[in-house]
Amino acid sequence: MRLRVSAALVALVLLTGCEPKAGAPAPLPVALNAEAMGVFCGMNLMEHPGPKGQIITASRIDPFWFSSVRDTVAFTLMPDQPRDIRAIYVSDMARAPSWESPGDANWIDARKAFFVIGSRKQGGMGAAEAVPFGERTAAEGFAATNGGQVVMLDQIPADYVLGSEPPGAASNLDDSGVRTN
Predict the structure, then answer these.
(1) What's 164's DSSP letter?
(2) How far is CA 158 from the centre of its chain?
(3) What pLDDT is recorded for position 42?
(4) Cβ atoms of residues 100 and 121 within 8 Å
(5) N or C: which end of the chain has fewer CB within 10 A?
């Protein structure tokens, strides 16, 4: 009996040592690779254009991967998803080689990024996208060219990322399917 209690105490000490410490630095992003599969679509991220996302949690070794930033933000709003988020990274599209190839190591902290929402560009799964940038001026330049508005992560409306309308159904599209903002 005494041995079981001792073993249980040792296990408890070891497990609590694995908890992230308050104020501990966020884990670094993982480079996009061929094994990265989207959480919601189950498809390889490298097969889709546009910015990507990854969420690192305390309870999982590998990041949760997302084929679009819209899906990344949606994951954080869904009550049935893990709440032990340690870091949220998104592609910095100002440093991306192109829309088709958003880069594998140009990650930025989503909580510090500037997002363009409501632009003409669609994400990896063909839906409205929240296009991230590391600098406000880059986001503003993108919005000037592609439409949309610049917001921070906490300003992205929940219905923008959780909405079920198909692309082209938004009220700011003209008859040809082009955004008018």
Answers:
(1) -
(2) 14
(3) 86
(4) no
(5) N
pLDDT in tens, 43-99: 898 888 999 999 999 999 999 999 999 999 999 999 999 999 999 999 999 999 999
Query: Shortest CA distance to 53 belongs to which of 87, 99, 20?
Result: 87
Residue type, 34: A
Between the alpha carbon of residue 181 and those of residues 58, 143, 152, the distances in Å are: 40, 9, 19
How far is the C-alpha of 168 from the C-alpha of 175, rounded, in Å? 9
Give the CB-side neighbour count of residue 67, counting CA atoms within 13 A. Answer: 23
Residue 7 scores a pLDDT above 90 = no
The span from the CA of 179 to the CA of 172, in Å, is: 6
CA angle 81, 84, 85 (to 5 degrees): 85
Q: What is the pTM (predicted TM-score) of this model? A: 0.79
